[in-house]
Structure formats: C-alpha cells, structure tokens
TrEMBL record:
SUPFAM superfamilies: TT1751-like. It holds the Pfam family DUF302. This is Uncharacterized protein (DUF302 family). The lineage of its organism: Bacteria, Pseudomonadati, Bacteroidota, Flavobacteriia, Flavobacteriales. Gene3D superfamilies: TT1751-like domain (3.30.310.70).
Amino acid sequence: MSGQETNNGLIQVTSNHSFESTYEIIKKTLDANPNIGILAEVDHTGNAKRVDLELPKTKLILFGNPKLGTPLMQSSRTIAIDLPQKILIWEADGKVFLTYNDPEYLLKRHGITDKDPIAEKISGALATISGKASE
C-alpha cells in the first residue's frame, strides 16, 4: 500500500489513481464482496455546490457487514455511532486519499475488550479494499 498513515484513529492511504477512478475502484471492490453492502454514498462536494460553496472533490461511502458489526454493537451499543464502516475519498493538492477509521481504535474508544478477532478481520478487509486504489 502506498503512503499509509495512522493518526487519531484514522488510517489514510494515498491512491495511485485519479479521484474518479479511485471512487469507482472502491465501489466495484465493495460491490464484488457478497458479505458487504453499500448503504449510502455522500457527495460532499455536490452538497456544497448546492449552497454555492466550494469544496474540493470529497465523497464518502458507507458500507457494512452485519455479521461483523452486530457482535460489536452487542458488546457496546455506542459503537453504532461509528458503524457502518466508512471510506472517505478526497482530493488535495493533486493527490487522492482514502481515509477510514481504524477498527482497533474503535474498540478502544467504546471499551470493547473481547472482539479483537473481529477488529482484525475488519482491518484486513479495509486494507484490502483501500489497497486496490494504490495498485
């Protein structure tokens, strides 16, 4: 993976593709996984434009796998504020980035101590998904 950083519970990956290509790669990767469903897409740039404001290219995809997320919520209902999973695709200074929550950070944030294997599985899936954009 190119340019992966972790900061304040966020993992950031630099894409090797254009904004549009990165967005489509992420969507296709999510759609190809039968365990994952895309729940919503938010075009922050388009929303800003509707009120005559400018925002560089910024989109958010919300997606989830209830088989993994539900056990986390069973341990601590407050983690639902951070679920479903999200990937933010954004552009700055000619570069495209993907940012998402570190699942292990979320477990700590919500005091979940008995679900490390689930966090590891989610972490692996997120790394695979974001890694497609840096291939």
